[in-house]
Amino acid sequence: MLIFCIWWAGIILEFVLLLRGVQGKLLRRFPFFYSYILFVFLQTILLYCVHHWSPSSYPAVYWTCQYVALFVGSLIVFEIYRLALHSYPGTSRMARNSLLFIFALAVAKVFVYQSNGTLSWLARAPAELERNVRVVQAFSILAIVCVLLIYAIPCSRHLKGILAGYGLMVATSVFDLSLLSHFGNSFKKIWVYAQISSYLFFLMIWLYAMWSPAAVPVPQPEAPPEDYSRIASDTEQELAKLRLGFRKAAR
Fold first, then answer.
1. Calpha distance 239→14 (Å, rounded)
2. What is the C-alpha to C-alpha distance for residues 114 and 131, in angstroms, rounded to an integer?
3. CA distances from 238 to 54, 56, 232, 246, 251 (A)
4. Which of the 8 DSSP states describes residue 111?
């Protein structure tokens, strides 16, 4: 009974989050984030129906949806990079290309090293596949957080909320999936409750961050240092003297 209450609470929070996104005209600004919320919203309803009407099909449907959710969730990481570094287009493009390369390597490792060229490994160990992708996401999020803190790049409250919620979700998933891989079926029931309960917390973070409008911060250009200004002034004076000397020589 408790798990169904948590399930329906998640559906309600997702619906409210989507509704506020439409009302606040945020869908165009955060297309991947809201695509992820919409997909999880539909997935939750689908899984609820499958669990109620065809419990035997639930594992296959769950992991199929989970693979799609992993892909859409990875797009959120790209969206975070694009929005956080929008004032630095060259750096943003390089970072996103690097992320794409890293994700491609992670997928290649799964198919080449784990599955030995076959798809049977996807059915044998889906939790391990999800954990590998989550680890790549975690390091990607950690990297952008370090860049934002070191270079004091301003972010809107909306972007901070998306980053905080998704970052915590990825970190929690890596931890839970590592325990599941280690303890196996003995941890599965606890893992299910931990997963859906923590997801409610992440939804509340996103709902709080996206509830009201927030201005997009514009990075202020730094004033040139005093020594640089003095050198520029001295150089300008020297150039003026040279121009005057050339005019006298021409006469």
1. 65
2. 13
3. 85, 84, 10, 12, 20
4. I
Give the model confidence (pLDDT) of 138-186 as tens digits. 888 998 898 889 888 888 999 999 999 999 999 998 888 777 777 766 6
Residue 154, judged by CB atoms within 10 A of its CB (0-12, 13-18, 19+), counts as: middle
Q: Interior CA angle at 66 toward 29 and 135, to 5°?
A: 80
What phi and psi, each to the nearest 5 degrees, are found at residue 214? -145, 135
- DSSP calls for 7-28: HHHHHHHHHHHHHHHHHTT-TT
pTM for the complete prediction? 0.78
* Structure-token match 């997009």, residue found: 216
Q: Are 47 and 61 in contact, with CB atoms under 8 Å apart?
A: yes
Q: Which of 208, 69, 42, 62 is nearest to 137 (CA)?
A: 69
Pick from 134, 106, 107, 110: which is nearest to 120 by CA?
110
| Residues 176 and 188 sit within 8 Å (Cβ to Cβ) | no
- What gap in Å lies between CA 178 and CA 180, rounded to an integer? 5
Measure the CA–CA gap between 47 and 70, rounded to whole angstroms: 16
Three-state DSSP class for residue 36: helix
What does the angle CA 86 – CA 89 – CA 95 come to, to the nearest 5 degrees?
Answer: 95
